[in-house]
Amino acid sequence: MSDSLVSSFPALSSMTALWRARYGTQPPAAPALPESPVARGLMTHRSVRGFSASALPDGVLEAAVAAAQSASTSSNLQGWSVIAVRDADRRARLAKIAGDQDFIAQAPLFLAWVADLSRLDHVGQAHGRDLPGVDCLDTFLAAVMDTAFAAQNAAAAFESYGLGIVYVGAVRNRPEAIAAELGLPARTVALFGMSVGYPDRQRPTAIKPRLPQHAVLHAERYDSAAANDPAVIAAYDERLRAARTAQGSPGRSWSESVLARLGDVSALHGRERLPEALRGLGFVLGQA
Ligand SMILES: Cc1cc2nc3c(=O)[nH]c(=O)nc-3n(C[C@H](O)[C@H](O)[C@H](O)COP(=O)(O)O)c2cc1C
């Protein structure tokens, strides 16, 4: 088994094998990586875009949402909601809206992760109070962060049951259309979706290489030279290109992807107008 195709079952892969698959290097000799089943599970992650039709076992969604609700949350505001979409017709419509991504229709479950300030508004109304703090940009950011932490806890929980997931940022291509399809109230926005299901074993997915750890982990103070070392980036470019080619994807380097994604805002497929869309959905974003 090649490094990048280490088993998708964490129990079958060592910390060392997972490190090698992620970074293409041996882990540091000392200190050794302390064994952790949770860390192994997280390091086993790969996005899945080919799903079998099998439904999720009963109770898995509820366990994953309990994991999501167990995440830390800014000031315990819990400014998020999640919408579970199982209906095949609705998933097909969502697939169209979210960049024509077929796996959304294929996977038995689609979760829309929603930053939700509307519930906080209702608390104010129930007490006859205006809550100007809801309009502050920081409150919106807190809701965005809380939604992401919750979703990632759920993702880890799903993966621990042998399920595969892929996030779907393309719901932000057309936020108003998603809001209409899901019946979202004012001051809520679907930040991203998540398709969930059993991976199609005919289409195995590999662990995707990441930047070397020393490019992102700084000691005490930010180290620009380490973060942007051209030789390190060039080596990662080639590693990622090879990994993509091996998966049958266009053999693009990381730098080429960055340029393609951010070199022209049209590559954001509508997300470049997000501030306008958010205001239309009732968010004030600090401009009270
Ligand atoms: C917020 C977010 C949105 C994403 N949106 C999409 C998407 O719309 N379509 C897709 O195929 N992958 C999407 N992804 C998956 C990323 O492409 C993927 O995580 C990244 O390439 C790293 O690959 P890996 O998850 O297999 O390690 C998204 C990931 C995140 C975190």
UniProtKB/TrEMBL annotation:
Top-level class of the enzyme under EC nomenclature: oxidoreductase
Keywords: Flavoprotein, FMN, NADP, Oxidoreductase
Keyword Nuclease: no
Top-level lineage group: Bacteria
Keyword Signal: no
Pfam families linked: Nitroreductase
EC number of this enzyme: 1.6.99.-
GO molecular function: oxidoreductase activity
Coiled-coil ranges (or none): none
Nitroreductase domain residues: 43-198
UniProt cross-references to InterPro entries, sorted A to Z: Flavin_OxRdtase_Frp, Nitroreductase, Nitroreductase-like
Family statement drawn from the similarity comment of this UniProt entry: Belongs to the flavin oxidoreductase frp family.
PANTHER family associated with the record: OXYGEN-INSENSITIVE NADPH NITROREDUCTASE
Listed name of the protein: NADPH-flavin oxidoreductase
Organism whose genome encodes this protein: Komagataeibacter saccharivorans
Gene behind the chain: frp
